[in-house]
Write a structure and sequence with these properties.
By secondary structure, the protein is mainly beta. 8% of the residues lie in helices and 46% in strands. Helix 1 (9-24) runs antiparallel to helix 2. The two termini are 33 Å apart.
Amino acid sequence: MVQTSTCQNQLCSVEKFYILLHVLGCFSVRIMELLVLLVASILLSVNLGNDASGLPNVRRGPSQEPTVKFDSTQPTAVTIYMERLNTVTTDVVVTFDESETDSTVAGTNLWQMELWFSRKADGTGSKRGTIGSALSEEQGDRPVSFSDFSFDDLEIVADLRDTGCSEYLYICAQIRRDDPTPSYNLLNKNKDAIGCAPVTCTQPPLESALVTSVTNTPVQITLGEDNDVTTDVTVTFDQGETGAITGQNLWRVETWFSKTPTGAGAKVDLTEQALDAAQQSQIIDGTYNLVFVGATARADLRSTGCNDYEFICACIKKGTPEPDYEFMDGGSSSTTGCSEVTCEPPLESALVTSVTNTPVQITLGEDNDVTTDVTVTFDQGETGTITGQNLWRVETWFSKTPTGAGAKVDLTEQALDAAQQSQTIDGTYNLVFVGATARADLRSTECDEYEFICACIKKGTPEPDYEFMDGGSSSTTGCSEVTCEPPLESALVTSVTNTPVQITPGEDNDVTTDVTVTFDQGETGTITGQNLWRVETWFSKTPTGAGAKVDLTEQALDAAQQSQTIDGTYNLVFVGATARADLRSTGCDEYEFICACIKKGTPEPDYEFMDGGSSSTTGCSEVTCEPPLESALVTSVTNTPVQITLGEDNDVTTDVTVTFDQGETGTITGQNLWRVETWFSKTPTGAGAKVDLTEQALDAAQQSQTIDGTYNLVFVGATARADLRSTGCDEYEFICACIKKGTPEPDYEFMDGGSSSTTGCSEVTCEPPLESALVTSVTNTPVQITLGEDNDVTTDVTVTFDQGETGTITGQNLWRVETWFSKTPTGAGAKVDLTEQALDAAQQSQTIDGTYNLVFVGATARADLRSTGCDEYEFICACIKKGTPEPDYEFMDGGSSSTTGCSEVTCEPPLESALVTSVTNTPVQITLGEDNDVTTDVTVTFDQGETGTITGQNLWRVETWFSKTPTGAGAKVDLTEQALDAAQQSQTIDGTYNLVFVGATARADLRSTGCDEYEFICACIKKGTPEPDYEFMDGGSSSTTGCSEVTCEPPLESALVTSVTNTPVQIILGEDNDVTTDVTVTFDQGETGTITGQHLWRVETWFSKTPTGAGAKVDLTEQALDAAQQSQTIDETYNLMFVGATARADLRSTGCDEYEFICACIKKGTPEPDYEFMNGGSSSTTGCSEVTCEPPLESALVTSVTNTPVQITLGEDNDVTTDVTVTFDQGETGTITGQNLWRVETWFSKTPTGAGAKVDLTEQALDAAQQSQTIDGTYNLVFVVHLQRGWVMSQLTLPFTLLNKTSLLMADTPFCVG
């Protein structure tokens, strides 16, 4: 601490005493030190005893304010993340110059702390994210402390959302004086108040989500159905390990059914994504639960039971998130939850759509038991098969309203009998409850409350259960009007009889039956009026009409019969009551009896109809049901034309087609069904004379041809005869065919519309005899086939004709040539791999006209040797045959010897084969807006068993293209048809079964299009034009084509180097020299962008004999830059200077010859992010400078430096001298002579070693002569050094206490000799 300027008595005494001792010089230095320590300690204790206040040593400025001087300011390093808004904290440690700082400084508003980010390590230049004062009020009021003066958790923001890391390389802090109370004086506002620390700028870490549990809600599924169900899935996350998870496609939930409560084992009916789009992107932000309501699942129980469906399970998985996050779990126990499944058979359902009921009539003054027929209609789509017991309940009541609303008068809660309650819905969607009961008690009331009778369908107490559905009372209730009148005339039916009928299976039969109704004379009055009666008729299996009423006719009477009167007689006879039996799609089984039932009509006036049940009102009689004959109705006959030859007895055939009416023709089967007559006629209808009549032109099989599902008969080759040996063509203009009924067994009904429908005629060609062609010989050329292959070959066939017997043969389809292989030279025996027509269309119509040879070049043949040997293939044979000529001719031969020729076959082993099994290729990167020439490495794998040794020239062709699909299907964008160079095209397969084509070329021209069509780069292996040949095999594009992904990105930033220069170096012969050269790289301003990132540059250094660096690179250093230099940024300037790029010249065993120049070459590093490095060749990226190569220097090894003490006076400008003695090591020190050999620095220090601040530094304390002092045989140098000392304002800690007027600097204070 610095003493106050006011001299205390004791302290002045010490000073005087110390000066006295020094002046006298009576003692040695060591004795003087001891005395100083002893006396100072005694007097200091006296002084402290006298000054009870213990005032500290205080440094005061001229205004007597305390002073503060900062020694250093150091923030802690921080980490920030690219593309983020970063809020970070730093701890700033401040130290003071204790000799210049008053430790008593305290108060309020003492300090301010500025924080910022900088590109430079000293904080100079532009600032980013500046915080003017980062201190809290409490921190700003902290008193001075020499032991701990730090400001923790100071906050600053680094916004990297729209910028890179280059502006945020350092975090800097500067402590400043605020507006202190009380005030203090801040000394030397210098760089010690500013400090910076490096910033780590990196990719942001992923947010994480740690799943702790998954639960889901139970579901119910129905056996026999394909159940689409939902379960609510709740996912719980660990609060400490889970961040804010936002983005798209974050989650995937799998659902499945399982036999186990943990979901282990088979995942039955797995749904891989049970979430909808919104759920997949649900956010975790402040809460740690996700609830996915209605996650989907499917249980398909249409063909399986409930066994595998005991539990429904849900598992949370990571989606395909954008942005990404880290998904963590503790295994399936944390990410999977299961809940129980209720699996039951499905209930059938019945949806009522309407209810109707029939009106009733009630009689005033009576207790009326009435019935109403209730019809219930169900929705077909929503109603199943409802069977069981007690299914239905029908309520009936009377009402004043047509909807049944209001009071239910005389309510009957169950109007159905037991059978009706259990009526089944099975295939029909109507229930008719005939005679649902109701009661109207009008014995003591009037008709007012009885305007309508209503019926309501309800669910019974069903066993088994079903689901009853309705749309409310409007769908389940129906009402109809009530007629309420005084008592009526009555008619009591006692019996009903009816006459039998006959019906025909397969037809819709309308029949009539006479119905006789007998009434009871005593109970029957006079019944007259309109619409008195209704007779139902139906067919039944029972003689009482019980059971199903088949083809029910609800009113079988005409109008007059409905109004027949009972007046004095008690019988009604209804002649011709109608009935209908539709047997078009059913048999006779349900039609054994026809029944008639008398019912009351809709009489006007009314009467009371009475019966003793169905036995009195229903009568039945037998039905005769017999099948009809099948019928066949001919609608037309056509036949094909024929050609006959004048002067010959012609046997010809015509194809006869008979068409039948589909509606009138049944299935006609049996024997001898048909007869076809053929004849010749002068008329196109066949009318008139039937010339050369053939009465049966069909063979036995044709006579029994069946009509079954089709309505055409085609009789191919029906025979006819035209005898023109003694007549002309006049009577033979048409050939006619007529279809007739044969003698069928069984019979059928043959119908026609006259001869016009059963007869058809076609034209006859009657010509003189045909041209003829007589074959005399056939020859053919040999072929070569390959063992083990299916060979398609050709042979040239020459046919020779007899000149005298062969005319002019012209037309179409004249010839047919068969080819085959044979073991015999004549073609006899088996015809192996027979080709029935070896000629093409043109050859089949080749003409004989003046020449008598036909040459068929390239007649085809096939030799399938894939599973056989060469034995059967010794000769290839060709045989000429007649084609299907138009016009016809007569083909003649002298047997196979004249029409067949054979030649030898060469049968050889197959070519080497190569079977491709797969193709893969490496991904590429292309740049949007450019015409990209890229390469992809293509690997082709061959099947080892099917691939031989493939050698030769031009073996392979590889196509490359770009595609939107991962298989290369669709458009081939920018197709390169041959992506291989000459050497690659001839690569050999020999013992290995892979070909690797490194650098197969491709081109992606994106100068005027986008990336859409360039998602994949594809390569396809094809056969080249090989010499020698081989067999190329593949399994389709899936085996010969491979694709890989394309990275399509906007253009990289570019850097175009224009020049490199570097500074010269000096190296020493005989040594391993580590040297540095400053390398300056200049870039083209127009072609160079902003280049930032890591590992951007690589500088090679080497030595060379040439000024351009050409030739051998001696002592090459591949990376001469340190880590910071490798990441230097190009931003607004276009020069990079790498100060101190390293190089090495090892001259321990070589001379200087190879070391004339040091060269530096700039290269691209391994940049992140990437950029495009451009240059104009080595001339632009390489610079060289001269090397000075000299013999080794003499050496001088300093072993010690001593200097003599000095005395200086406080308050004065001291000129002093000290004698500096430098001692050198004798073994390591040579003869040192010359000019300017030495430099001695002198300074004053607080420490005995000279460490710390160098006070009043003199950088060269020697005069010119001393600087050139020689070492020559002696190993000491003594320099008498003159020192200059300014105003001394420092105090040294004991024992080197600086006194008020003078100071002692110890004799062993070190001095620096350079």
